[in-house]
Amino acid sequence: MKRMLSGIKPTGQLHLGNYIGALSHFVEYQDEYEVYFFIANLHCITVPQDPAELKQNLHDCVALYLACGLDPERSTIFLQTDVRAHAQLGFIMCCHTYLGELNRMTQFKDKQAKGEKNLSGGLYTYPSLMAADILLYDADYVPVGEDQKQHVELTRDLAERMNHRYGKLFQVPEPLVPKVGARIMSLSDPSRKMSKSDDSDKGCIYLLDDLKKARKKIMSAVTDSIGKVHFDPENQPGISNLMQIMSSLSDNRPMADIEQEFEGKGYGEFKRAVADVVCARLEEIQNRYREISESGMIEKTLKEGAARASQVADAKLSQVQKAIGMDIIL
Ligand code: AMP
Ligand code: TRP
């Protein structure tokens, strides 16, 4: 079975875009691959965090992943800092990454270009740590959003470099970027992606939003004056986005089917139907979230996950240190 690994960096609350674009696919991957999902809490602190908020986000992230269907029996789920080998191989990878490579990484460059002050050394070397995360497990596939693809490409270069220098150490991983994958847009500005960094909170539905609030956000979603439920992202971006949400949450129901159901009906009625579908799914997830939070399942999952992951990661770290000549007692 091919191995898949992905890291999740919960620097904010998870929203419907994360669920439709990433999380729901992870749940499907469990059947096809041997999967490792970890919470990248080291990557989180590359930018300043409020400790209490970070802790809550980490907790909610694990609870929500489980609530959405990740199964700790089939997936290895763990916290990055619980497997010490990440930080250790991270440093080794740093020593094999050229400054020129780090300087080319757009995530860092973008932040710098925006004039953000006091960027940290950790943010600069972020991609080297990410390479370590992936290479420790000899992952074949790494599902990531488009913005992270460059980091996986760097990981491939580093793996090849080290394999060449020390003999075969690492599997060279492939990024897995969803092809068409639904891109959920903001409800208040359908020309932009639904995102936690939205200026107003109206455009983004969080998985833990109060149901009434979520319904209200959908009812006040920006639409158009055409007055027809028709899938046309260019001319009717708001309506098409709502159709996309409805379809994704109903087993990819065909757009033509939705168009037919709402033919001759007003946007109000259509929005109510979208809100029903969204709220039903949120309710399911939130009920599971509450059960999980109270059950001790989070602690158990992370403990067992870290133990399983450490076995693989420690063996790889040790192999690397030996190959480099860093260990004395072999
Ligand atoms: P982020 O929260 O931006 O770090 O994204 C985490 C994951 O969720 C990535 O795999 C993204 O591709 C996915 N994602 C984030 N926002 C959206 C969105 N609006 N629509 C679809 N997928 C999204
Ligand atoms: N950098 C990723 C993000 O921002 C999170 C991440 C950290 C990751 N390590 C990883 C993703 C390893 C895939 C593989 O979303």
Concise description?
The protein is mainly α. Helix content is 54%, strand content 7%.
Shape: elongated
> What small molecules does this complex bind?
adenosine monophosphate, tryptophan
Number of helices: 14
Instruction: Tell me about the largest β-sheet.
Output: 3 strands, parallel
Describe the structure.
The chain has two domains: 3-182 and 296-323, HUPs (Rossmann fold, 3-Layer(aba) Sandwich), CATH 3.40.50; 201-290, Orthogonal Bundle (Tyrosyl-Transfer RNA Synthetase). It is 54% helix and 7% strand. The chain is built from 14 helices and five strands. The strands form two sheets. A three-stranded parallel beta sheet has the order 1-2-3, sandwiched between helices. Strand 4, helix 9 (149-166) and strand 5 (174-176) form a beta-alpha-beta unit. Helix 4 packs parallel to helix 14. The two termini are 31 Å apart. The site of tryptophan (TRP) has 12 residues, from strand 1 and helix 8.
